[in-house]
Amino acid sequence: MLETRLDTGRIRAARLVIDPLFLDTPLYRCEGLEPGLGCAVSVKLETANPVRSFKGRGTELVAGRLIDMGARDVVCASAGNLGLALAWSGRRRGLNVAVVASRSAPAAKLDRIRALGARLELVDGDFDQARERAVDIARGDGVRLLEDSQDIETCEGAATIGLELVDAAQPVDAVLVALGGGAMATGVGHVLKALAPGVEVICVQPEGAPAMARSWHRRSVVTTGPTDTIADGVAGRRPIKAVLDDLLQVADDAVLVREESIIAGMRALLDHAGLVVEPSAALGIAAVLEDRERFAGRHVATIVCGSNVDLDSYHRWIGAASIR
Amino acid sequence: MLETRLDTGRIRAARLVIDPLFLDTPLYRCEGLEPGLGCAVSVKLETANPVRSFKGRGTELVAGRLIDMGARDVVCASAGNLGLALAWSGRRRGLNVAVVASRSAPAAKLDRIRALGARLELVDGDFDQARERAVDIARGDGVRLLEDSQDIETCEGAATIGLELVDAAQPVDAVLVALGGGAMATGVGHVLKALAPGVEVICVQPEGAPAMARSWHRRSVVTTGPTDTIADGVAGRRPIKAVLDDLLQVADDAVLVREESIIAGMRALLDHAGLVVEPSAALGIAAVLEDRERFAGRHVATIVCGSNVDLDSYHRWIGAASIR
Fold this sequence. Notes:
The structure is a homodimer. Chain A is α/β, with parallel strands linked by helices. In chain A, about 45% of the residues lie in helices and about 15% in strands.
């Protein structure tokens, strides 16, 4: 019996609140990728929307509920995509949005957050330090704090991706989900386990930011020292226990991948699918590249969860010679 | 009174025949593009599907009707995307597909046609020479010839894009459509003129392949000498009269753009929307870049119609330095 914090009925209802712009995203086979990966590959493309990541699904719910409650202000810490999406959803509803981010977050994300009219505060340090600062702001100003993965709306929003995967015309054998704080993994995982329990749910995290994956394997929260990965979107050090408890119920595995595999995944998505993606969005392909045997002959779906990348970094990672 | 070869009821019915993979594609504002263009810009993204262009909408209709008629074989000439899409739709239904293309068509397109199991014949010369050869094959082998833009299914398929534009949550003032043989322009144009006659339909062709645009201005078929453009998908020399007659009814303008504007459009779509596109898909942005005053303060939609591009060419056009 599945006993997570999520509820499939609420997830279905969430579809009615989320702007349709973020729903029913493309899901299609990328045969160009398949010879190199040795398995059938479908991509679920979450980048063709105004915020270029899946996070709008969750922030639409958050912003909608805050307005219903009469709130005027909200603050969040963000690696970038959550803040960007919250800024978009907030602007649409007249909600004042403040975002705390690391000074080292990609300029592409920070610039777009400012452009959408949100107040952006940068902190030295990493995402977890931004989290601390956001908590201080919320307490000091009496403003509602949105906590990614902790707040159920962020998981429910992501979970609507799971509904769309379950409804796919071509069923898949495994779904590869980028793992950071765990909102997407627990949300998508919950729906798959509830409605299509035969589908393997495999979470993928970088070796350089392994906190949640290690926690899953140890079945208790493991915090780590500084992260070291280009996948800025999933680089947290301190997993949240309630999210881990859910993840333990819905994930079949949590694997770690090397930086060079993430880059190879980004390159494969460009070369064979024509997609520019941010590193976190290539984690699924990286996992296949590192364990072809596991996936041989199977049909996997990977969620291409964001494309907010600084193109100079992208270009440096991919390498000029490889853009062909 | 609109009297084209198209019929809005038939176009609505086409939606039931086309694989849903090709329908209801993303349509969203790209605010990142807007400061540089001086107007509101929405993109209709036709690349997130297994054939990476809008052509699947038409080939789904063609292949479906051929199978209904008991046909087993079909041949077409193609700049690449039509052949690729026909190969996909044909494979799905057990139809034997032969494609004639120019030897100089992008390898990305030719390789994918072969990979989908179609018979590919290459000719020296350009698209119009491939057309002649396809006619010969059809006559010699008694095989059904699919003629892009001439055969109404190719226009009806593209026209379903128009239905989705009309249903958009945010109405637009103008739609920018790449102009080649005219299937997309007449299809989309017909629907807009029938259902949203206030929306300006602007067709865009490269200066280096201006046959249909010149024909539209002269109101009679103008053929040209060899084309000279990187926009391989729209490079024809001999417009079809019936298609021109339709275009004369549904287009408000047909503009020509320079090669450097097409490249600047491709670069803008990469830099500000994260999209890798083939040259034909950047024609709309190129048109805005060349006439900012015309579009100032308006809301335009542009159809990003394909992303099958050789990445070495793409890289050469865009220039390493600009990928940031």
